[in-house]
UniProtKB/TrEMBL annotation:
Protein known as: AAA domain-containing protein
Xref: CDD domains: NK
Protein species of origin: Lentzea flaviverrucosa
Organism lineage: Bacteria, Bacillati, Actinomycetota, Actinomycetes, Pseudonocardiales
InterPro entries the record matches: P-loop_NTPase (IPR027417)
Length: 113
């Protein structure tokens, strides 16, 4: 099964995913962008990369492990991935945070770079 955790930057996706991953067994946790984002990444790149992640979810599924994937890829692109119908299921959770909190987190993140 593919579990998709999506939301805007600094909404808490990574923090939530790590917390869930630490508490549950048989769950692989990954971030969409961990494979690298090329200069000039476009919709076509994102769609190809989405298909790659769906295939990875299928590999995990074959071993009895679910894949929790964080990122901002649109749900429609996940559902449209050629391999998506082979998954046992797809579940999505949208994470949101107030604009004030998001600005504060972005400022703190930028200051630490």
């Amino acid at each position: 099964m593919l579990l998709k955790l999506t939301g805007s930057s600094c909404s808490g996706k990574t923090t939530l995913a790590r917390s869930v991953g630490d508490r549950l067994g048989r769950l692989a946790v990954h971030d969409f962008d961990e494979v690298g984002v090329p200069e000039g990444a476009d919709r076509r790149w994102r769609q190809r990369t989405t298909e790659m992640w769906v295939r990875r979810a299928l590999e995990h599924q074959d071993r009895g492990v679910d894949l929790l994937l964080t990122g901002q890829s649109p749900l429609g692109e996940v559902l449209a991935a050629p391999s998506a119908p082979l998954l046992d299921g797809i579940a999505v959770c949208l994470v949101d945070v107030s604009d004030e909190v998001r600005r504060s987190r972005l400022t703190a993140r930028d200051a630490s770079r």
